[in-house]
Amino acid sequence: MQPPSPSGSSPPPTLETSALQRLQSYLRQPLRISVTDGRIFLGTFAGTDKPLNILLANTEEYRMGSGEMLEGRYVGQVLIPWRLVTKVEAQAQQDYGYASGSGLEGPMYL
């Protein structure tokens, strides 16, 4: 930890603090997370733990069914191990809600 500067101004943000601020900006935002076995979780970002496992609330889980149809089910609150995550997508800021259908189509995720 750095001592306060003599002028009274705060020290410049470090990479760690800017990453933490960015992560905090995603709290309570919809995330779409893909995992190694092909499942997709669509839910509200509730936080992480120390090893960066991802906690989602009000989550739906999607699997590719026969004939490339998405099959979804409500799973509620889930903790996804970071080692299984292949992709994390956040909803674009200008969008206000899920798209029609499964919520997995369209350019609403970054």
From TrEMBL:
Gene3D superfamilies to which the protein is assigned, alphabetical: 2.30.30.100
Coiled-coil regions listed: none
A GO cellular-component term linked to this record: NatC complex
Pfam families: LSM
Sm domain location: 21-90
InterPro entries the record matches: LSM_dom_sf, LSMD1_Sm, Sm_dom_euk/arc, snRNP_SmB/NAA38-like
Listed name of the protein: Sm domain-containing protein
Species per Swiss-Prot/TrEMBL record: Ephemerocybe angulata
